[in-house]
């Protein structure tokens, strides 16, 4: 029996339609693999609730498996759980949109913001935060025929009953990997194609989505995963969607000052508002002479890093920077802003108010890069990520069970103003950075990527998503990268296009 026929038979058994299909309810090969795993890792296919989810007047009946633990030894039972939603049609031999029980891709959206703990997502409309009133991404995906599996994940502030931190790095990525393995282990009792898992996330969640896609099956995480009681097996995924990924943290301070050096006025937010899910309040200020000095010291570190990556344009041009931070890489970044502006012009928008754009004959010819950066404005103070007093969200991410905050760059350790200068291990910093796994022999990279970063999103330098997208392109992967015009720090704002891309890559691959 071929595996697809045996899977169909299992699903028919689930649906109680086996007799109709003329198949017997015998066990399958993947059942045999599942049988060797602890019972705690087997999904009970009967423990669902029926829901009808709606978006914009359209609705769909689904089975919802809610709050399902995905590790055998959870340290936090509120966060190490997953919500799995399956269109009811897939148990009735019917199709939704382009898909059926065998072909439906599995949409895997995490809800992480600010590297904080995140509960699994639900199909209910958003009621809080900047996205209040928007439909649930999960409900919209179900209507398109995706199976949706939304993992919860531990985050940097989480504590156990004894007050020990339980969600510091690399907890969140371990949780996402464990959830992927759980889905594969239970493939025989779940509709959907577990070889078509498509991750999605925004900001810190975008970084984790990218890291999940880059670091598939890497042995770096294995001992941790085993200790958690994660399912054995693979954790590579099919495709990645990432909105404004706050990634490449150990290079993000230099990338930030490469972009914002010379912009001394800022509108900053408090660390507690880092999370894109929060409504933000900005406080205006001006860099002190000491902060300007730090910016001046960080900026020149960036060209050496960019040049070490050997990035190339699709035409084969080397993307580099000279010592003062100018060169083909800068033009490459600015090219994405120009294309975004051109898209607006082509859609009939009036760009007259953007005096830094040079528009002639319906074409955006060039831009005054410095003026554009001043327009976007500075939000973070240098160093933007590894704060000298170890007070940033990222310092908090790299804490330990007993130390709340740690540095993660030599630059900030050397200039430390906190009580004690403690630095996260290089291996740990590596394990949180998607860039470290792209093209690595020890990891299986996802081959299809969609990355979005708004032109005025100042939470990380525009160079960061450009480096990520270009490194992936240079591996020969299919990368759809764009900078939406005048878009700030947010995600899931173009669901129709996101789902169209997901459907296209799923059908092609
Ligand atoms: C997020 C935003 C940040 O500016 C940051 O440094 C980390 C995370 C976020 O919205 O997830």
Can you walk through the features of this model?
It comes from Rhodoferax mekongensis. With 509 residues, this protein is an alpha/beta fold. The protein has a domain at 37-247 and 490-508: 3-Layer(aba) Sandwich (Rossmann fold), CATH 3.40.50.1820. It is built from 17 helices and 13 strands. It has helices spanning 3-15, 18-21, 29-36, 137-143, 171-185, 204-214, 222-228, 249-260, 289-298, 301-308, 328-346, 369-376, 393-397, 410-414, 426-431, 463-474, 495-508, and strands at residues 49-55, 58-69, 81-87, 105-109, 147-151, 193-202, 239-243, 265-268, 283-286, 357-360, 363-367, 448-452, 478-482. It has a nine-stranded mixed β-sheet, with helices on both faces. Residues 1-9 and 12-30 have low confidence and may be disordered.
Key traits:
13 strands, AB_hydrolase_fold, single chain, 9-stranded mixed β-sheet, globular, disordered N terminus, alpha/beta, signal, binds 3,4-dihydroxybenzoic acid, Subtype B tannase, TAT_signal, two-stranded antiparallel sheet, Rossmann fold, 509 residues, Tannase_B
